[in-house]
Amino acid sequence: MNENTELKTIGYTPFNYSADRALFRVNGGVPIQEALERASDLLHLAHRLAEDAAFEKSTDRYAWAAHFLLEMSKAVIDDVVKVITPRAGVEVRKKAEKQ
Asked: Pfam families, from UniProt (predicted)?
């Protein structure tokens, strides 16, 4: 795939809500391969923190860190799925272009 036709994130998927408003959003224009690699890194870190949380009973900080990493990972993967799923991708791209 050449550089001009490489699929990229559309930047439509929000995460981390506060009062029903998204505080963060996946950035558009990131090559899908890089986005998936980053999601994999986030999932790995979340896994390790969740594992630590299972053994550390005196604090919930590990669990909350894992929660937020999982939320970010899911948003990245959802954004990629919107790009590679033909029907959903077209509808979402149109919405993103209007913003």
From this structure: DUF3077 (PF11275)
